[in-house]
Specification:
CATH architecture of chain A: Orthogonal Bundle
Shape of chain B: globular
Distance between the termini of chain A: 15 Å
Radius of gyration of chain B: 22 Å
Radius of gyration of chain A: 23 Å
Number of strands of chain B: 12
Strand content of chain B: 15-25%
Chains: A mainly alpha (306), B alpha/beta (362), C alpha/beta (329)
Number of domains of chain B: 2
CATH superfamily of the largest domain in chain B: P-loop containing nucleotide triphosphate hydrolases
Shape of chain A: globular
Order of helices and strands of chain A: HHHHHHHHHHHH
Largest interface: B-C, 39 and 42 residues
CATH topology of chain A: MetI-like fold
CATH class of chain A: Mainly Alpha
Oligomer: heterotrimer
Distance between the termini of chain B: 55 Å
Number of strands of chain A: 0
CATH architecture of the largest domain in chain B: 3-Layer(aba) Sandwich
Number of domains of chain A: 1
Helix content of chain A: over 70%
Largest sheet of chain A: none
Number of helices of chain B: 13
């Protein structure tokens, strides 16, 4: 282990860093994911055009094919849609919305799931039984159905929903389908850690239960959660895309990748395939790179495989 | 809480002014029992007609430990010694009986007010060292944080140079160096981790240490280092130990008196010299005979029979009777009680009908 | 002729920190019917030696060089198929954890019969009869009934007896027992060790008994090899090694074992710890901890040489060995 040197150099020298350096798939996946994240965060600067600015659209440029096909326009690398929007810009902005929704709902799921899992595992008894039955109930519903239900309820409650509220409902619905995984994983790990001697030693010192939970058990159960969260980001993005595709996701004024795919679907049979294919490809690239990263992380953090 | 002691802390039974003198009993255990209910849930029992299964892990154990001495408890699996250890430090509540530490009832103090002054004093003066050196230290904390935790919890030092100095001194007293405080447990060997556990246990300057098989997981040469360290610390600081082990040779080295446990019961207690020179209970004799020896002493050996029965379904009467070569009808019916003197030239207590009736040879 | 002969065995583990030598030139022999104990502390390499002989090294560990001969034939370079034929039929194995050695899904009888029929040309009925006899020999009461029981229906000590029966089912010439009694209660240990000794003696099987418990070695073995940091530092008849050890490590080890029979004022201790595999000292691996180091110990690694009635890898005995060598010429 290299005790000196800056933290990044130290991390690269660690077992996890070594594993990353030796796994070409993971390196590529990490780079791709990073690029997507970067583009999405700085969409305003990266995208050549702002697809939501109606003034900048030129209807005359509508339905133009990508640059490498005949009829293509160098101004629009990936072609345009029926309203003259640059597909590349739309995809970048759409990715940003998908990523924001996905990441937010994962963070919220994490907070809820980890807290409940810790409580269930540590307290045991009826608290544990109640929470686990709740998990079982939630798992018996398909995620999309739950999300549809909540979205529907949201629309009924807020019929003239402003954009932030619509986003809020969407994020809540994805969050509520995702927390169960964390709760169960953390509960299992908590059950194991709770009986270990270092926890008994802390009790013997007189440390209050809540502090034991927070300072001793929590850091030791977070390992599998990290892997889960990485993979769940991809699932959350896909769930959001599905919901948007079905028309109950993001409001139409801020199209995510799912919305773009749906809109583009209508033009598939008239030959303008690029309107739906490129958003779809972007979705796949994001989900795939995150999944591969998650797979690698799980193997890298598994002490037995090292 | 309306304890009269709360108003006059100096008169508390745990305050130093009331401290027991060396030789007086510091720890007194009376009729301690702990039963675990391992039955299936009520509903499934109702449906399947099964009985409740109760595990009598500790069954009516009594002994005393004088200040500055070491009592060793020996026994095989299922004898309840680990449960007893946890009962003594307050990690379990007993089903019946009591534990008196320096005159104060340990479990009542905790029950009355888990955060009260009495309970906190107990936590400072009674500590424990565990068997598994790998699971007894939080893998995510540095050694310095681990050793500092009791100091911070009891307000014995505030974060800063004073704390650092105390942590360094504690580490040095167990043979490690102060610079080890920045490292993590996984960077140390098993023996070194036990030393860290000992340093942590000593942080609050306890009087009484319960040691649950502290060297069983260690290699022989490392065990020697840790045992020597524990002995030195006992001499320097006047510590009292309850030392639990299944290894009789280690017990011979560390103890002043020895208690033998079988299926949750104390079957024999004697000062060390007497127990090893003339063991009385048939189980003690069997244990001593069964251990593989380095030297053949030519002593006639009692053949070993059977295995430890299932603690969930113990034999009637004397728990050892199915394996005992001297068992008679009374042994099957009646549970023997521990009889004998605690002090004096004939100190030694046995729970055995054969001994009582004089049927045992030698 | 020796039944098992190991010569200069080297086992290496390629890791990202470099090549680690877990066994560094281990040599010993076991005669037919003999019980050899292999004793050492954690990390000394005793379990690895047993694993290497049976061909059960966990990858990436591998035998880098050296020879292992069973009744004259080399077995260290056999293919997996050949090894499978050897395991069971010619070498039996007993491991520490009986729960892990027995398949919980099959009855004890099924596992015994399977092993017997894999290696011996017997019919189902004959194999079953042989299995019942085996169970009886290992002291399991009512073997006719218990042959149909599953492993979880046996207690710890009984399970280990079943494992012994399984190891001896195909009548191997050599049994490798790796910490067979460590997980058992003390009173059961004596029973199981006695059984192992008797049953191997009756069948003329040699035993390689790997353990960290010197008491077990004293009661069971004919000869013992003491291992340290992947090497054998002393080997010889059991009583000599235990009561008159020649190597300083063995001396330190014996002095640090608490004695059941006598009171000791203080246990001798060997300061320091066994070196890690990536930090093995030059010359003699024990020299940093040795109270009697010579200059030579730091530079040259000693081979096993004559030292009284045992053989020890220690330069302190160099003069004696040289004198003997000269006398032999």
């Amino acid at each position: 282990m290299n005790p000196s040197g800056n933290p990044i150099a130290r991390w690269l020298d660690s077992d996890v860093g070594y594993s990353l350096r030796n796994s070409p798939v993971a390196i590529v996946a990490a780079i791709v994911a990073f690029i997507c994240l970067f583009c999405a965060l700085f969409a305003g600067w990266v995208a050549p055009q702002d697809p939501f600015d109606l003034a900048s659209l030129e209807l005359a440029d509508a339905r133009q094919p990508p640059i490498w096909l005949e009829g293509g326009n160098p101004k629009y690398w990936l072609g345009t849609d029926d309203q003259g929007r640059d597909i590349l810009s739309a995809v970048i902005h759409g990715a940003r919305i998908s990523l924001v929704v996905g990441l937010t709902s994962v963070v919220l799921s994490l907070l809820i799931g980890v807290s409940l899992g810790l409580l269930a595992g540590f307290l045991g008894g009826w608290v544990d039984a109640l929470l686990m039955r709740l998990c079982d109930v939630m798992l018996s519903f398909p995620a999309i159905l739950v999300a549809l239900l909540i979205a529907g309820v949201g629309r009924a409650l807020f019929p003239n929903a402003q954009t932030p509220v619509a986003f809020g409902v969407l994020i809540v619905s994805i969050t509520l389908t995702g927390w169960v995984q964390y709760a169960r994983t953390v509960r299992g790990s908590t059950l194991v850690e709770r009986d270990k001697e270092y926890v008994q030693a802390a009790r013997l010192i007189g440390v209050p239960q809540l502090r034991i939970l927070r300072r001793h058990i929590l850091p030791n159960v977070l390992g599998p959660v990290l892997v889960l969260a990485t993979i769940q980001v991809a699932t959350a993005i896909l769930t959001e895309a599905t919901l948007s595709f079905l028309g109950v996701g993001v409001p139409p004024t801020s199209p995510s990748l799912g919305t773009l795919i749906r809109v583009g679907n209508d033009y598939l049979f008239s030959g303008e395939w690029w309107i739906t294919v490129f958003p779809g490809a972007m979705l796949i690239i994001i989900a795939l790179s995150i999944n591969l990263l998650g797979d690698w992380l799980r193997d890298a953090l598994n002490p037995r495989l090292r | 809480m309306n304890s009269p002691y709360m108003d006059t802390p100096t008169a508390s039974p745990l305050s130093p002014s009331n401290a027991t003198q060396p030789g007086e009993s510091l720890v007194r255990v009376e009729g301690l029992s702990k039963t675990f209910d391992l039955s299936a849930s009520w509903l499934s029992r109702l449906l399947s007609g099964r009985q409740a299964s109760l595990l009598r892990a500790v069954d009516g154990v009594s002994f005393t430990i004088p200040r500055g001495a070491t009592l060793a408890l020996v026994g095989e699996s299922g004898c309840g010694k680990s449960t007893l250890a946890r009962l003594l430090v307050g990690l379990h509540q007993p089903s019946s009986g009591k534990v008196l530490f320096d005159g104060a009832d340990v479990h009542q103090s905790i029950r009355n007010d888990a955060n009260g002054a009495l309970a906190r004093q107990l936590r400072q003066r009674v500590q424990m060292i565990f068997q598994d050196p790998y699971a007894s230290l939080d893998p995510r904390w540095t050694v310095g944080e681990i050793v500092a935790e009791p100091l911070l919890e009891h307000g014995l030092a505030s974060p800063g140079p004073a704390l650092e100095e105390r942590v360094g001194a504690l580490l040095q007293s167990v043979g490690l160096s102060g610079s080890d405080r920045a490292r993590f447990p996984h960077q140390f060997s098993g023996g070194q981790r036990q030393r860290i556990s000992i340093a942590r246990a000593l942080a609050t300057e306890p009087d009484f240490l319960v040691c649950d098989e502290p060297t069983s997981a260690l290699d022989v040469s490392v065990q020697a280092q840790v045992l020597n360290l524990m002995r030195d610390l006992q001499r320097e600081r006047g510590l009292t130990y309850l030392f639990i082990s299944h290894n009789l040779a280690v017990v011979r080295y560390v103890s002043d008196s020895v208690g033998v446990m079988y299926l949750g019961r104390l079957v024999e207690w004697a000062p060390k010299a007497r127990l090893f020179a003339s063991p009385r209970h048939p189980y003690t004799r069997m244990l001593l005979d069964a251990i593989p020896k380095l030297r053949d002493t030519g002593r006639a050996r009692t053949p070993v029979q059977g295995e430890v029965p299932d603690p969930l379904d113990p034999p009637t009467g004397c728990a050892f009777h199915p394996r005992c070569p001297s068992a008679n009808e009374r042994c099957r019916r009646e549970r023997p009680i521990l009889i004998g003197d605690e002090t004096g030239v004939n100190a030694g207590r046995v729970a055995c009908h054969a001994v009582e009736e004089g049927r045992l040879s030698g | 002729m020796s039944l098992l002969e190991v010569k200069d065995l080297v086992v290496e583990f390629p890791t990202r920190r470099g090549l680690l030598r877990a066994l560094d030139g281990v040599s010993f022999a076991i005669a037919p019917g003999e019980i050899l104990g292999v004793v050492g502390e954690s990390g000394a390499g005793k379990s690895l030696t047993g694993a290497a002989i049976i061909g059960l090294l966990d990858p990436p560990g591998r035998i880098a060089s050296g020879e292992i001969r069973l009744a004259g034939e080399r077995i260290d370079q056999c293919s997996e198929v050949e090894l499978r034929a050897i395991r069971g039929r010619r070498i039996g194995a007993i491991f520490q954890d009986p729960l892990a050695s027995l398949d919980p899904l099959y009855s004890v009888g099924q596992q015994l019969i399977e092993t017997i029929r894999t290696h011996l040309p017997l019919t189902e009925g004959q194999a079953r009869q042989r299995a019942i006899e085996l169970l009886e020999e290992t002291g399991i009461p009512a073997p006719g009934e218990r042959i149909n029981h599953y492993p979880h229906q046996f207690s710890g000590g009984m399970r280990q007896r079943v494992v012994i029966a399984l190891a001896l089912a195909a009548q191997p010439q050599l049994v490798i027992a790796d910490e067979p009694t460590t997980a058992l209660d003390v009173s059961i240990q004596a029973q199981v060790i006695g059984l192992l000794k008797r049953i191997c003696h009756d069948r003329g099987a040699a035993v390689m008994l790997i353990t960290h418990d010197m008491g077990v070695i004293a009661e069971t073995c004919d000869r013992v090899a003491v291992m340290y940091a992947g090497r054998i530092v002393e080997i010889g008849p059991v009583q000599q090694v235990i009561h008159a050890p020649a190597h300083p490590y063995t001396m330190g080890l014996m002095a640090s074992i608490p004695d059941l029979e006598t009171d000791r004022e203080r246990l001798a201790q060997i300061d320091g710890a066994m070196p890690r595999l990536d930090a093995i000292p030059s010359g003699c691996a024990f020299h940093p901890r040795c109270p009697r180091t010579l200059e030579r110990c730091r530079r040259e690694r000693p081979e096993l040489m004559a030292a009284g009635s045992t053989r020890a890898a220690c330069w302190l005995h160099a003069t004696e060995a040289e004198a003997e060598a000269e006398a032999a010429q």
